[in-house]
Amino acid sequence: MKNFKIIVIGFFSVLFILNCEYKTPILEYFPDMADSRAVESQEADVLSASILGGNRIPPEGTIPRGYYPYPYSNVQFADELKNPEKGLSNPLKKSLANYKRGEDRYQIYCSPCHGVTGQGNGNVVGPSPRYLMTPTPLTQERVVKFTDGQIYHVITVGKGVMSSYASQIEPEDRWKLIQYIRKLQEAENNKTKAVK
User: Fold this and answer.
1) How far separated are the first and last CA of the chain, in Å rounded?
2) What is the C-alpha to C-alpha distance for residues 114 and 136, in angstroms, rounded to an integer?
3) How confident is the model over 167-187, as pLDDT tens digits?
4) Residues near 187 by beta carbon (within 8 Å), at least 6 away in sequence
5) Using one digit for the tens of pLDDT, what is the confidence trace for 44-64?
6) Where are the domains of the chain?
């Protein structure tokens, strides 16, 4: 009989506790992300940046891991980059491996516009051109006179109708690409001399 009383009292105690409504929230010692502070849709997230840490502004002068800042803007093409000593110069030695990698990058990224031989007659040019302007021939005298730094700058920032390829072509591959472009220019120059 004593056990029966304990069971009945325990049963009604549990029912009483389950039916209670709490006017104040329960104090949680360690919520373990079970009850996170949600941001409603169309509401400004004021907690994230100030209290919870969210997307904070990085300290001045810091650089993200794996990122190398490009020191030139797109308006500095004419002045600083003409002089290889002041501007950019190709840090890679000429080699067959670099040439082959440059050729591979050229076929993927450059030949659709500039053509296989750099004449500016790629797939986008033809009976039904997709662009109003013809791409610049890379074997043109004006382009041949560009320094390696100027060509690197055009690949990185873009020029005219050509957009930037910085997100598609790695910095080291840009230099290899320039080595291949120089070979195309050299081949065109030799062909022109042979005709004369």
Assistant:
1) 121
2) 7
3) 999 999 999 999 999 999 999
4) 117
5) 666 555 555 556 677 888 877
6) 2-52, 80-195
